[in-house]
Input
Amino acid sequence: SQQGEEDPQALSIQEGENATMNCSYKTSINNLQWYRQNSGRGLVHLILIRSNEREKHSGRLRVTLDTSKKSSSLLITASRAADTASYFCATDYGNNRLAFGKGNQVVVIP
Amino acid sequence: DTAVSQTPKYLVTQMGNDKSIKCEQNLGHDTMYWYKQDSKKFLKIMFSYNNKELIINETVPNRFSPKSPDKAHLNLHINSLELGDSAVYFCASSQAGLVTEQFFGPGTRLTVL
Output
């Protein structure tokens, strides 16, 4: 699978529900970041979790990192229509570049 | 104030033409990047500059040439455009390499006819 690959790739939920996305990677990382991209716009950084951290919160977002399984998850609680976007994970392997996943399309139905 | 800006937002051109995309950031960042996002939304890094010095040059045709006149600007010139160059090109910047977040521009949608 592609490094920094999100799963599932498309998610449709009702407003108020939680949305969970997963990301897996292949080798050791320095940190993992999640970004949001609204249609026709640039990516916006959401949260960064370092390799020595296991969980991080930011507002309605919760990110976990399991380095033994080389995976991360992004949870959006109490989703809103404005959360409709594509969500990307990006891994920093320490080689001066981020490897982005394929993106996860989330549609929140009002 | 826009943090990372790109011009133009849309670019439609014929095969074989030469075109440029400009990027400017007013965040005081040292590092700037060019990414290409294809129709399936896959985002791939092309180039990175740190304080006007090229530090990443991915496997990109040499028809693509970045230029950084100063650390706030990173332009992308493309010669002899091909159909496969059609994509959305994003400029981004970060304060200190990749340990921190990257700030993205709004993108330039390039369509080669």
Remarks:
- The mean pLDDT of chain A is 90.
- Residues 21 and 65 of chain A are 12 Å apart (CA to CA).
